[in-house]
UniProtKB/TrEMBL annotation:
NCBIfam families: QueF-II. Its main location: cytoplasm. It holds the Pfam family QueF. It comes from Mesobacillus foraminis. Keywords: Cytoplasm, NADP, Oxidoreductase, Queuosine biosynthesis. This is NADPH-dependent 7-cyano-7-deazaguanine reductase. The gene is queF. The lineage of its organism: Bacteria, Bacillati, Bacillota, Bacilli, Bacillales. Its EC number is 1.7.1.13. Belongs to the GTP cyclohydrolase I family. QueF type 1 subfamily. Gene3D superfamilies: 3.30.1130.10. It is an enzyme of class 1 (oxidoreductase). The active site is at 57 (thioimide intermediate), 64 (proton donor).
Length: 166
């Protein structure tokens, strides 16, 4: 039989395949789970697109909607996607500015995964006639990924992507 075995990180997962999923309505970083990266000898990107991300304005408590893009180059661990979905859902009643949300998400994933490189981009829909699209990134200090992060930060908006979620 091919594929990942139970002993290769699956035994620690509590959410995937669980029919009694509990949805947190408060910010819940503890829901994130990781498994071993079976391909840590090579660089590759993992990209998640969450077109239904919501959070609340910390002042008005009005909802903010975004497509959240998370891309990373894993090292020893990868995030389990159902736990990531539940984690992102936990922002639904969380009151923070757009810039805070993307940085909180990135910081939580760095803490969980210790990735080689990661970037998080929130494309928020306009409210009050203006949209805010915060983008942040990180590369492991002292490595080529730190240089990559610096380069991406300096050049990330030279060729703006087509905005298709508005």
């Amino acid at each position: 039989m091919s594929g990942r075995s139970h002993e290769e990180g699956l035994k620690d997962l509590t959410l995937l395949g669980n029919q009694n999923t509990k949805y947190s309505f408060q910010y819940a970083p503890e829901v994130l789970e990781a498994v071993d990266n079976m391909h840590s000898s090579r660089d590759y990107f993992v990209k998640f697109n969450c077109p239904e991300f919501t959070s609340l304005c910390p002042m008005t408590h009005q909802p903010d909607f975004a497509t959240m893009y998370i891309s990373y180059i894993p090292d020893k661990k990868i995030v389990e996607s159902k736990s990531l979905k539940l984690y992102l859902f936990s922002f639904r009643n969380h009151g923070d500015f757009h810039e805070d949300c993307v940085n909180i998400i990135m910081n939580d994933l760095i803490k969980l995964l210790d990735p080689r490189y990661i970037e998080v981009w929130g494309k928020f829909t306009p409210r009050g006639g203006i949209s805010i699209d915060p983008w942040c990134n990180y590369g492991k200090p002292g490595t080529k990924y730190e240089e990559m992060a610096d380069y991406r930060l300096m050049n990330h908006d030279l060729n703006p992507e087509k905005i298709d979620n508005r």
